Amino acid sequence: MATVIDGKAIAQTIRSEIADEIRLLSQKYGKVPGLAVVIVGDRKDSQSYVRMKRKSCAELGIKSFDVDLPEQVSEAELIKKVHELNANPDVHGILVQLPLPKHLNEEKVLSEISLEKDVDGFHPLNIGKLAMKGRDPLFLPCTPKACIELLQQSGVSIKGKRAVVVGRSNIVGLPASLLLLKADATVSIVHSHTSQPESIIREADIVIAAAGQPMMIKGSWIKPGAAVIDVGTNAVDDPTKKTGYRLVGDVDFAEASKVAGWITPVPGGVGPMTVTMLLKNTLEGARRYIAQNN
Ligand SMILES: Nc1nc2c(c(=O)[nH]1)N[C@@H](CN(C=O)c1ccc(C(=O)N[C@@H](CCC(=O)O)C(=O)O)cc1)CN2
Ligand SMILES: [Mg+2]
């Protein structure tokens, strides 16, 4: 049976370290990190993620700046808000919750966030630097950073290993594959046009599943002893639950956990670490700001 990687517990340990560092920063410089969380519209899932982020800020001593905009907000108004946050010296990190409503151009909006405050690491220049050998972005995207941190904390070495990323989204799949490449893995990306994905996944020592397809990766697709990091958070109907649904990953956990060496659960794996990496990036942004302005 695989070792189940407890993302919630690992996240908790890192959070208490972040809280300690924030206390020190505050004592020494009289400043606390500030994070602006911008949300447009009222998608239930996005609202819930934003609530989690704001609550986590409060718990760790990060000042959160809440910007809630209506679904119909114009691109110009949203960008004006971003510019105001760029100019606010108490804000060290800015994130715009994704996805945005269809009428807004995500790439345009994200490229207006100051590079030094881009704690999601989604600014095209930060992504570009991630793709370049010998260059480092100011911030790494939170979910891919969470995946690497979970592997490292579990003692899984990446260098020279075969890694497969399932999915090629801008938020997870693409940056995760770039991070694995930077860590010297041999990386393949499997996506909706890949024929026989199972034959490629079966060769992988490390699998990062970020396809958004409930339980698509079967136990028979996993190489014995592989490390499996499941980014999927899919709601599937479950009449036995009060809510009427339950969350499952992109991996069939019951099957894969019998074959893998390590595996993350859903919920309680990558999700809590994603928010923790955001808090860590915000602390990094504040530290950098203080170093440049003292
Ligand atoms: N601006 C951004 N937008 C989005 C990001 C992002 O990193 N930045 N990622 C996702 C959503 N996301 C954070 O925003 C996120 C998703 C899931 C979790 C999480 O903790 N999941 C829990 C289960 C939660 C539940 O019970 O509903 C888990 O896996 O244990 C955190 C953050 C898209 N948008
Ligand atoms: Mg859009």
Automatic annotation (TrEMBL):
The molecular function terms of the Gene Ontology recorded here are: methenyltetrahydrofolate cyclohydrolase activity; methylenetetrahydrofolate dehydrogenase (NADP+) activity
Q: Any keyword Nucleotide-binding? A: no
| Entry-linked InterPro entries | Aminoacid_DH-like_N_sf (IPR046346), NAD(P)-bd_dom_sf (IPR036291), THF_DH/CycHdrlase (IPR000672), THF_DH/CycHdrlase_cat_dom (IPR020630), THF_DH/CycHdrlase_CS (IPR020867), THF_DH/CycHdrlase_NAD-bd_dom (IPR020631)
Which reaction(s) does the protein catalyse, per the Swiss-Prot or TrEMBL entry?
Answer: (6R)-5,10-methenyltetrahydrofolate + H2O = (6R)-10-formyltetrahydrofolate + H(+); (6R)-5,10-methylene-5,6,7,8-tetrahydrofolate + NADP(+) = (6R)-5,10-methenyltetrahydrofolate + NADPH
Cellular component terms, GO, for this chain's entry? cytosol
Tetrahydrofolate dehydrogenase/cyclohydrolase catalytic domain span? 5-120
What Pfam families does the entry give?
THF_DHG_CYH, THF_DHG_CYH_C
Q: Which UniProt keywords apply?
A: Hydrolase, Multifunctional enzyme, NADP, One-carbon metabolism, Oxidoreductase, Photorespiration
Instruction: Give start and end of each Tetrahydrofolate dehydrogenase/cyclohydrolase NAD(P)-binding domain.
Output: 141-288
Q: Report the PANTHER family cross-referenced here.
A: BIFUNCTIONAL PROTEIN FOLD 2 (PTHR48099:SF27), C-1-TETRAHYDROFOLATE SYNTHASE, CYTOPLASMIC-RELATED (PTHR48099)
- Do you know which NCBIfam families this protein is assigned to? PRK14186.1
Protein purpose: Catalyzes the oxidation of 5,10-methylenetetrahydrofolate to 5,10-methenyltetrahydrofolate and then the hydrolysis of 5,10-methenyltetrahydrofolate to 10-formyltetrahydrofolate.
> What's the protein called, per UniProt?
Methenyltetrahydrofolate cyclohydrolase
